[in-house]
Amino acid sequence: MNDTSEMKDVFQTYLSSMDDLTRVCVVPDAHSKVWKDECMYCYCDSECDSGLYINMKSFQGFCSKHLTLDQGKHPEALYLIEKTIKVASYIYGDVCD
Length: 97
Ligand SMILES: [Zn+2]
What we know:
The protein is 30% helix and 10% strand. The protein is of the alpha+beta class and 97 residues long. The chain has one domain: Herpes Virus-1, CATH 3.30.40.10. The longest helix has 22 residues, at 3-24. The model has no long low-confidence stretch (mean pLDDT 85). Residues 39, 41-42, 44, 63, 65-66 line the site of zinc ion (ZN).
């Protein structure tokens, strides 16, 4: 196999993986509603221990406890995990008060 056909195979594999990705993901536009502040079923947010899982097709957020409810409806879903981590300011010393 020469370099050109090897590159073509790699490119075809890349394109097929992009097809899979576009099947489970949607790019939000200015009119899309994204529920990324709290879980759809409770008040957990990105500051909860496990973070908030945002479905990249429906743009709905779920905590780890309620994530299985969404996975039951959308088994091939892809999620973005949003997690807020608070850092104590004394780590930075004099830079941050
Ligand atoms: Zn929840």
